[in-house]
Amino acid sequence: MFARGRPDAPVMIIGEGPGADEDAQGQPFVGRAGKLLDRMLTAAGLADRVFITNTVFWRPPGNRTPTPVEQAVCAPFVERAIELVQPKVLLLLGGAPAKAILKSTEGILSLRGKWREYDLSDSALTIPVLPTLHPAFLLRQPQAKKRAWADLLTLTDRLDRSGRNTLQTEM
User: Fold this and answer.
1) Is the separation of the CB atoms in 129 and 118 below 8 Å?
2) Which of 19, 76, 96, 111 has the lowest tally of Cβ within 10 angstroms?
3) Model pLDDT, residue 164
4) Is this structure's pTM higher than 0.90?
């Protein structure tokens, strides 16, 4: 399974890997966590502005977190997807994609809500990156939804501001 959403989306969302529902349906984020993500994206005005993929494209045994080796195997494909979509923003859901994409050892609670940059190798393309909490974590820890919601609003604001600045420059 590779992705779902608009291939020309301004926001690329990267999760860690498929779970049982995703494995059965062949699309990322279609289970309980995916339904929560969809509701959040809709509420933030982002539902039709996203391309969603994962750091690995198969379900890790026992539904465990993908290993760095598994992520490294898929990294060229993730990078190529970023290159093709050319999103204005990357949203990283959870610690595994945040560590893999940002090449960081920090945990998601330290990384979340802080803007970083992703430099696409062999390209001059630099993309703003916002790590946030994974929807599966939010289902287990509902009190954390407020932090993830704040991150989505920050992303939406930045995206809308960049769109306005582009329009003003073109006028």
Assistant:
1) yes
2) 76
3) 65
4) yes
